[in-house]
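Bug: token stream looks shifted between consecutive jobs. Job 1:
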Amino acid sequence: MQDDLTRRYSPEQIAGRLRRQFPDQPEMWVSTETIYQSLYVQSRGALNRELTKHLRTGRALRKPGRTTGQRKNRILDMVNIAERPAEADDRAVPGHWEGDLVIGKRNATAIGTLVERTTGFAMLVALPDGYKPEHVAPALTKKIQTLPDALRRSLTWDQGPEMRDWKQVRVDEGIEVFFCDPHAPWQRGSNENTNGLLRQYFPKGTDFNSVTEAQLDAVADELNDRPRKRLAFAKPIEEISELLLQ
């Protein structure tokens, strides 16, 4: 359990994972509340209180950085999320992704985030040269081209000007691109949740120019190794690996 906490599993994820691993051995189970009590109540030292630093302390709220209407007509010919295939909405078919930027120090640096809707599998995209359209499109193309064709069905993004060159992404990656309605982050709920988790690793004010692509890949690996309640406490890496074997 201590190892799981250092890997930033939440108490709920740990409890759920134990039930999944030992379905017929209730003596191996532990409740979420018991884990929290072990961390926060000064008892006989059941768990090292230093482990609390690995808990998620809260989700960073994304604040709109532009005034209403400022993005109007920034992206030509964009295809609205209403036209996205129904199979993407119910998460029944894998290969539909949500994407966004996480902005760093003084709004000068950023990384891209991609989350697969069915499995919750995440990929992080390095943007060492900046996050203007001419930087974002090639970086997304490079990252998504590492995926098999079966996992390249659609990408949903918000109406940020960084996706001005979305047609290049569509052609180069062989993936359809859709755009959310303005000020509707819930239309990319999986991605918003992942961006919140990333603040454990990259607090507000992080200078992403000091973060290497290898470090981003390591963080993505750790996120994908976390059990998820939505997946009955399976891990995204387990779910996507199973799909790739089919």
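Job 2, same session, no restart:
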Amino acid sequence: MANEDGRERFQRAFSSLREEMQKVVVSYADVIDDVLTGFFAGGNILIESAPGLGKTLIAKTLADVLDLNHKRIQFTPDLMPSDILGTTIVSESEGGKRYFEFQRGPVFTNILLADEITRATPKTQSALLEAMQERMVSVGGKSYELDRPYFVMATMSPEDDSEGTYHLPEAQLDRFFFKLKLPKPGIDTLQTISQRTTGRSRAGLRRVLTGPEALELQRSVRAVRVPEASERHAVSLVLGTHPESREARTASKQYLRYGSSPRGIQALILGGKVRALLDGQLEVSPRHIDGVARQALNHRLILNFEGQAEGVRTEDLIQEVVRETAPAVN
């Protein structure tokens, strides 16, 4: 179980990381909190926005404030799985003897930025599945462990801007802990961006956390207690999105074809643990779970024909499910 010392260390580290990232990333305070929540919960993050709103900048800034290895892959239609995972090549020793050697690809790092992931073919997209879920890579009949911590941040343009893109299959979307959307900036935000990016000086970022420290804080998150009532609340939220379930909400029955997978429950619980620590608590309450419901579930719901025709947003459905799901009482 997490203790008070672990809680305070976590709060200090989270606050320091947030502060450093806000030196560069303008306006998106909630998005920064969600990205850090995903990182400390041990998940992967998908960020969606129109071009030029800072998707890549957020990922790069996170890598800069962590003392961890990071790599970036620009996804394109001609990108092959071997370009990501690596390939086995024939090498020759000094004595002239030939042997096979595995040359590691960019997936072997701590923080991986998968930029514009929907620009690559489904075959290449799926090359990340094992790395994201199992933290290992299998090539040529051999398995290779990835370094820990391991964190994938993928970016994509909105689905309505689909020209030249390949939609992510549901199985891969489900591997992402949170899906985040960046809103368009207002006048004040645009003015601040202009001031920060067109002048002489640039913000100097301090590296806040090392790999071993990050792993220790991730263990602190796992140690947060989850009462049975909070567990049942997370399950009720997920079942509320299943149109065929007895617990399904009215809007879910009307507009959804499929509800969230069990990974949605995992994301709710782990995200709730991070929010509990930030709230100064050592156990998760239903309100901590409600606070991450939109981010954890919005990409795990599949609209039916009626929902698509009426332009229903999954975020609105989740909000209704949260509003209608009363916390369980022991």
